[in-house]
From TrEMBL:
GO terms for cellular component: endoplasmic reticulum lumen. This is Protein disulfide-isomerase. Keywords: Disulfide bond, Endoplasmic reticulum, Isomerase, Redox-active center, Repeat, Signal. It catalyses: Catalyzes the rearrangement of -S-S- bonds in proteins. Disulfide bonds join C67-C70, C415-C418. GO terms for biological process: protein folding; response to endoplasmic reticulum stress.
Length: 509
């Protein structure tokens, strides 16, 4: 089966990483509602539509006066509105405690919700930037500019790149090219990623010459902020020219060689899908000392592994998610697609010179992942149970056994629904165990997903999955004996035909 980065783990990590996010030092003494003399426009159902018709670009905050995050945002929002007035970019507010219908019609579920309106006819987009005045201003200015800048001189080209705070993605499109579909794709990508990148398109002869662009094929380049102009990335010549390839190129190449991971940057690393190598440091000096070494390795492994530093004094607990001990510094690689973790042995003192050989072995598949696992049950323990107890180290062997039908219950010890299901599950397992004709066809198993790594996406407990010779199937039905048996194709033989067999112990209701 395809491994998934577990949702549960993902949100857990995000929660850890956001502990020190800028939103925590909340100043909730500010009013959420803008003052009467500010540039923020208060909208109601009466004037909402006409206002959107008249104004080409509006950021709207749907809020409630009592909401803490709205109060934090209050002064920042007001300041941004004042700064954006002269550019004809409007900031508006809708009080959802008074405008229930209006808020409902925009699908507002939480406060504040910030949405960008470009006229009344197009779907509003979510604002996903920081909630600080400077961030709002630059985000909205970007929204007001075309998604792609058409550049016609080499001087402008260099100037844009040198002054951009974001990575710059460049399309060099020779005029002779007939098939312009890739150009359309480029513009579409730019539209969707404009908040995080600057996009440039050019057909300028000097640039074509400088970057050795063939007349028959466009070229795609990426420049990272604060790096030398000569140090850019180029989409490989033989790469396919389609949306996925271009997007992947942009996501991968835009990352700094050795960036810092925080609540804000975490998601983009996860989305990049490439294995993520962490260096946890507890003292900034440790990071400085290793920076050259890792930056050089990162150049070599660009596109194969991303490298980040993590401040263990803030987010050290994240080590646990990566199956490492909270002993720093440490170096660990998380293969995000397979959700496997590979760390440098913590039994020995950490030495930076072990990183390079470790990476080589990782790339050639010569290191074993660190799997979180309870001990494998002994034969004796196993023989006493009808439900087979799986652990991190044995899970794969069972679910990949295509000769059997294996039903696995993923549970957490604290979960009430799991406790309720337990006797039913036990009964099913016992029935099968006692059924000589079928006992070798089925495995009824469970695993404590809090104590073991399970490479399965689990969005709630209990999760039941059936593995067989076809794709795994997640069980969605009622949690009673008959339904479960039916799900795995097991026929419960009526009691009268099984007189020779013992009744399974069960209190009659
Ligand atoms: C590329 O596509 C955009 C958006 O459709 C269009 O405005 C532009 O003229 C195209 N450029 C070329 C060189 O075809």
């Amino acid at each position: 089966m395809k491994f998934e980065w577990s949702l549960k783990e993902f949100s857990k990590v995000l929660a850890i990483l956001s502990i020190l996010s800028p939103f925590v030092n909340a100043d909730e003494s500010n009013p959420a509602i803008a003052s009467a003399d500010s540039a923020v426009v208060k909208l109601t159902s009466k004037d909402f539509e006409s206002f959107m018709k008249e104004n080409p670009l509006v950021l709207t905050e749907f809020f409630a006066p009592w909401c803490g995050h709205c109060k934090n945002l209050g002064p920042e929002y007001q300041e941004a509105a004042d700064k954006l007035v002269e550019r004809n970019i409007k900031l508006a507010q809708v009080d959802c405690t008074e405008e229930k219908d209006l808020c409902q019609s925009h699908g507002i579920r939480g406060y504040p919700s910030l949405k960008i309106f470009k006229g009344i006819d197009s779907e509003p987009e979510d604002y996903v930037g920081d909630r600080k005045s400077a961030a709002i201003v630059s985000y909205m200015i970007k929204q007001s500019l075309p998604a792609v800048l058409d550049v016609n001189s080499n001087d402008d080209f260099t100037e844009f790149i040198e002054n951009s705070d974001d990575p710059v993605v460049v399309q060099v499109l020779p005029t002779k090219i007939k098939d312009k579909s890739i150009n359309e794709t480029f513009y579409n990508i730019a539209e969707s990623l404009r908040n995080k990148f600057t996009f440039i398109s050019t057909s300028n002869d000097e640039i074509i010459k400088n970057y050795k662009v063939e007349s028959s094929k466009p070229k795609y380049l990426l420049f990272r902020p604060n790096e030398e102009l000569s140090h850019y990335s180029e989409l490989p010549k033989d790469a396919k020219l389609d949306e996925d390839t271009l997007k992947e190129f942009i996501q991968t190449e835009s990352k700094p060689l050795f960036g810092e991971i925080t609540g804000n940057t975490f998601q983009s690393y996860v989305e990049a899908k490439v294995p993520l190598a962490y260096y946890f440091y507890s003292d900034p000096k440790e990071k400085e000392e290793i920076s050259n070494l890792i930056t050089n390795l990162a150049k070599e492994y660009r596109g194969k592994i991303n490298f980040v530093a993590l401040d263990a004094s803030k987010y050290g607990a994240h080590a646990n998610n990566l199956n490492m001990k909270e002993e720093f510094p440490l170096f660990v690689i998380h293969d995000i697609e397979k959700n496997l973790k590979y760390g440098i042995d913590q039994e020995k003192n950490f030495e930076s010179k072990s990183i390079e050989p470790f990476l080589k072995k990782f790339i050639s598949g010569k290191i074993e992942p660190i799997v979180k696992s309870e001990p494998i049950p002994t034969k004796e323990e196993a023989s006493q149970q009808a439900v087979v107890k799986l652990v991190g180290k044995t899970h794969e062997d069972y679910v990949n056994d295509k000769k059997k039908i294996t039903l696995v219950k993923y549970y957490a010890p604290w979960c009430g629904h799991c406790k309720k299901l337990a006797p039913v599950f036990e009964e099913l397992a016992q029935l099968i165990k006692d059924d000589d004709a079928n006992k070798d066809k089925y495995v009824i198993a469970d695993i404590d997903a809090t104590l073991n790594d399970v490479p399965v996406e689990i969005s709630g407990y209990p999760t039941l999955i059936m593995y067989s010779d076809s794709e795994p199937v997640v069980y969605k039905g009622a949690r009673d004996l008959e339904s479960l048996a039916k799900f795995i194709g097991y026929e419960i033989v009526p009691k009268s035909e099984t007189e020779s067999k013992k009744d399974s112990p069960r209190d009659e209701l």
